[in-house]
Amino acid sequence: MTSTTEQQPQTERYEPGAIEQRWRQRWEESGLYRTEDHVEGRDNWYALTMLPYTSGDLHVGHWFAMAPSDALARFRRMRGYNVLFPIGFDAFGLPAENAAIAGGAHPKDWTDGNIVHMREQLKRMGTMFDWTREVDTSSPDYYRWTQWWFLQLYRQGLAYRADAPVNWCPSCNTVLANEQVVLGACERCHAVVEQRAMEQWFFRITNYAEELLANEELEWPEYVKLMQRNWIGRSEGSEAAFALETPAPDGTDEIRVFTTRPDTLHGVTFMVLAPEHPLVRQITTDEQRGEVEAYVRAAGLASELERQATDREKTGVFTGAWCVNHLTGDRVPIWIADYALATYGTGAVMAVPAHDQRDFEFAEKFGLPIPVVIAPPEWDGQPLAEAYVEPGTMVNSRSFDGLPSEEGKAAVTAHLEAQGWGGPKIQYRLRDWLISRQRYWGAPIPMVYCAGECGIVPVPEDQLPVELPYDVEFLPTGQSPLALSEEFVSTTCPACEGPARRETDTMDTFMCSSWYYMRYADAVNGASAIAPGPATAWLPVDQYTGGAEHATMHLLYARFFYKAARDAGTVPGDEPFTRYFAQGQILGPDGRRMSKSRGNVVPPDDQVDQWGADTFRAYLMFLGPWDQGGPYDVEGIVGVARWLRRVWSLAADPPAGGGAAGGASREALREAHRTLERVTEDYDGFDLNTAVAAMMELTNTLVRTREAGPVDEADWNESLRLLLLMLAPVCPHIAEELWERNGQPYSVHQQDWPTADPALSALETVELPVQINGRLRDRIDVPPTATEAEVRALAETRPRIAELLDGREPERVIYVPGRMLNLVLR
RNA sequence: GCCGAAGUGGCGGAAUGGCAGACGCGACGGUCUCAAAAACCGUUGGGCUUCACGGCCCGUGUGGGUUCGACUCCCACCUUCGGCACCA
User: Which residues pair with A90 in a beta bridge?
Assistant: First the structure.
C-alpha cells in the first residue's frame, strides 16, 4: 500500500454513496450476516436491539439506538463469538387503526407498506442484521404463536377474566393499561381518561412480584432496576378486620384493610371505602343513600386527572354504617372518599388522623376526632397541628402503652393474628396486567364463549391462528370492530360443538413484544413457538439495548413472560435479558424532543444522502456518551466527515516507502497499539464516543507521519491495518473498501480482533509533572518505570525546582510512577 | 411531595483521587486561488506580567469539609432532567 513510484497527481476522492451500496450488495450475496445456531469453536452471543414500531419512517432515534448496537455486535463477532443480531417489526397497534379510521388505508395495507419502506431504510444503515430471521408481529405466522402463548398462560392459571374498573379513553374508545395513562390523560391522544367497569382478561403478573423484585443481580442500569422495584412497590404491613355492626345483605360481616401502621390501630376514628368498593352499595343506610350515590356517580365521572391532583381538598360522604374496632371495642363510622383507591389493597382504609396526613386533613374537614396514639418525643399532650408520622411511643393503646412504635407493629400484628382479626400482610403496588383491547389491529384472544353449558373454552391449539378477518368496519363504537363481524364472531364450541361466540377483544401489543426475542432464535418454525434446540442455543439474550422509556412496561412484562415460559419448560434460565443497556434520547438541534410540530426533525435519510451511512453512524457514536443522548447538531457531522476523508487518504494517497526502520513510522505503530488498547476497552465499556476520538487521534498521527517523509513500509502497513480493523465496527463500509484496496482477504468483518503488543504499546518515556506543595511547577521526561530516587534527583537538577526548593529538604515526597511527583515543603 | 441522575470553554464533550478542557464543532489568522468553496496549517477558558522565551494568579453550579493533591470523595444548598405521585 505504499508507493515508491511518483505520486498520482489526482487522488481518488472518498465517495460514500457508491461504495456503501456496492458493499451492502456484496454482503447480502455472500450471506455474510447469515447466523447459524452453532459454529464450531465459537461461543454464541445474542445481541438484541429493540424492534421498531411500524410507524412508517425511521427517525434519528432509531439510528441512535441501532447503529451503536450494531457496532458492538460487530465487535463481539470479531472477538470470536457467533453473534446473533436480529431485527423485526412491532406491527400491531393503534396508529395503524387510527389511520384507517381517518379514512386512509386498511391497517394491514398501511402496516405492510410501512414495513417495506422501513426495511429499505434499515438496510441503508449497514447493519449486520440477519434478515432471514426477520419477524413481523402482525403476520399470522407470528401471532399464531402469540395466541399459543395466551393459551399456555391460561393453562398455567396465569390468565383470568375479571370485572374491574378500567381506564377508558373516550377518544380512542378503548381501555388503557395503567401504564398508558399519563397524568390522567391517554398516552397517545392525551384525551382525559374516565373510569368504567368492564369484564377483561388479565395476566397474573403479581404472582411473580417477589421474583420480579429480586432484580439486583441483573447487569442493568441501576436506575432502571430501581424504577422497576418502585413500580412493583412492595409494602410490609398487616391486614386487620373490622366487624360490621350490621352484616351486609350478602353475608359479609367485616371490612378488611391493609395497613403499614398496625401500631396506630388504637387511633382509628373512621373507615374510608373507595367509592367503587362493592360493600358501599350494601351497607349504605337509606338515610344516606342519596348523598352516597351522588358521590359515587361523581367519582366515576371525574377524570383520573382530577382525582389524582394531590393538592386537592379531601372530599367524602358518610355511609350511615358503622363497624367495630376489635382492639378497642369502639364504634367506627364508615365513610367513602375518593382518596381511597379501589385498586390497591382491599380498597378500604382504616383512618388514623393523628398519624397519617391524608386522614388528618379529612378528619379536620369533617370534624372527626384526632386522638394521639403515638407520642412524639417531648410531646406536651396538646393536639397536633399536623399528622405525626415518625416513630414514637405508643400511648392511649391499652396494654401496648409505653412500647416503642416500631416494636408495636409486630406486637399488634401478633395480637391480631392470635385473636383471628388479621395478621401480617405484604402488599404490592403492582397490579395484574390487563391485556384486553377493544380494538381490531391486534392478535385476537383465542377464546370462545359457549352458548350452552361449557362456558369459556380455549380454542384448541391445532385451530390456531384465530385469524383476523380483513373485511371489517372501522367505526369507533367502543366495541372491537371484530364484534361487528358476524362471520368472525359466530363459531362452534370446541367442547360441545354447539353454537358459540368468539372473544372479540385483541391482545395488548406488549404481549407481542414480550416474546419476540424468543422467536428470532427459531423464526421460521411452523411447529412450535420456539424449539428446545434454538432456545438453549440463544436464550437468554446476552446483551439487550433500547430506550429506558420501556423500564416499567415492556421490560417488566418481558421478564414476567420469560418466567412463565420458564415454568412451562420452554426457555432456559430465569431472566430474558442478562445485560441491558439503555441508550439516551437524541434531541433536535434546539435541545428539545424532535417533533414535526416543532419543526426540529432531522430526517436520517437526508443525513445519509449528504454524508453517507458510515459518517452518520460514526457521528451518532461520537456525539457524546451513548447512555446520555443529547441534541443532534447538524453542523458537527462535518468533523466526522473530515476524519473519514483523512482515513481514506491514508490508503488512497500513501507515503513514500523506504524510510528508516525505527523512525517516525515506528512511533506511529506504537501509538496504533496504544490506540488499540484504548479502543478495545472503550468498546467493551460502551464508550463509543471516546473510541472514535482515539481513532481520530491515531489518524491525525498517521497523517503527520506521512507528511514527515518516507516511512518504513512494514510499520506503516501494520498501523493502517490496525486502524481499519478498529474502524470496522463503527464504519463497516469504508473499512471494508479500504481493507480490500490494501489487498486483504474478504471480509474485514470476519477478521479476528487484533491484540495489542504490550512491548510496543508501552511508552518509553513519560512527561512527569513535578509539583511543589501540590502545585504544578515543572515537567520532566522520565521512563515510566523510574524509581522515586531517580525521579527526585532529576527534578532537583531543574533550575526552577531548585530555585523553589531553595536548599530545603521536602517534608514529604509523593511519587506516583508515570503520573506525578509532589514535593511537600511546609 | 418522594425516589433517581446530572451540572466542566461560545457549543457537544474528555479526564472518576494525580498535568482540567482529549477529540470534534464554531470562531479568528494564514497557505492555495482571479475569486469563492473545498482542502491544509496555526491560534482559541479568563486575567495579570514579559521586547521575547517564559512566568504568576483565577477557573469544573454555590458554600463548607477531608487530603500532600479534589471535576472526582463527604456535608448542606441551588438549578436542570427522568421516574412516581392520595398506594393506606
Answer: A53
Q: Which residue spans of chain A are classified as CATH 1.10.730.10?
A: 634-760
Q: Which nucleotide is nearest to A233 (CA to C1')?
A: B87
Cα four-point dihedral sign A245, A246, A252, A257? negative
Using C1' positions and the CA of A352, the closest nucleotide is: B88
- pLDDT tens for each residue of A37-93: 999 999 999 999 999 999 999 999 999 999 999 999 999 999 999 999 999 999 999
Q: In this structure, which topology does domain A234-428 adopt according to CATH?
A: Isoleucyl-tRNA Synthetase; domain 2 (3.90.740)
Residue nearest B15, CA–C1′ metric? A690
To the nearest 10°, report the CA torsion of A705, A642, A621, A715. Answer: -20
Q: How far is the CA of A582 from the C1' of B20 (A)?
A: 29
Q: Is there contact between A819 and strand B, defined as CB under 7 Å from any strand atom?
A: yes
**Quick check: A307 CB within 7 A of strand B?**
yes
Average pLDDT, stretch A554-579? 97
With beta carbons less than 8 A apart as the criterion, state whether A209 and A563 touch: no
Cα–Cα distances in angstroms (integers) from residue A41 to residues A82, A87, A454, A751, A753, in the given order = 9, 25, 55, 15, 16
Question: How far is A656 from A713, CA to CA, in rounded Å?
Answer: 8
pLDDT band at residue A664 under the 50/70/90 scheme: confident
- In order, the DSSP letters of A190-259 are -PBPEEEEEEEEEE-GGGGHHHHH--TTSBS-HHHHHHHHHHH-EEEEEEEEEEESS--TTS--EEEEEE
Q: Which three cell numbers stand for residue A450?
A: 359457549
CATH class held by domain A766-824? alpha beta
The pLDDT of A156-170, averaged and rounded, is 85
Write down which residues 69-98 in A have CB closer than 7 A to strand B: none
Distance A172 CA to B18 C1' (A): 61
As a rounded value in angstroms, the CA-to-C1' distance for A453 and B6 is 62
Three-state DSSP state, A457? strand
Which residues of A in 591-630 have their CB below 7 Å from strand B's atoms?
622-625, 628, 630
At A618 the pLDDT is 96
Closest to A644 (Cα-Cα) out of A683, A681, A618: A618
Whole-angstrom distance, CA of residue A393 vs CA of residue A373: 8
The C1' atom of B85 and the CA atom of A357 lie apart, in whole Å, by 15
- Answer yes or no: is A825 CB < 7 A from strand B: no
Task: Give the three cell numbers for residue A487.
Answer: 362471520
Which residues 203-232 in chain A have a CB closer than 7 A to strand B? 222-223, 226-227, 230-231
Q: Where in chain A is the domain with CATH 3.10.20.590?
A: 766-824
- Straight-line distance from CA A309 to C1' B37, in Å? 59
Q: Residue A731 carries which side chain, given as an amino acid letter? A: C
**Residue A461 contacts residue A470 (beta carbons within 8 Å):** no
Residue A135 has pLDDT above 90, yes or no: yes
Q: Which residues pair with A323 in a beta bridge?
A: A244, A332
Asked if pLDDT for residue A184 goes beyond 70, the answer is no
Tell me, which fold does domain A634-760 have in CATH? Isoleucyl-tRNA Synthetase; Domain 1 (1.10.730)
Chain B bases near protein Cβ (<7 Å): 3-5, 11-15, 18-20, 22-26, 39-41, 55-57, 68-70, 82-88
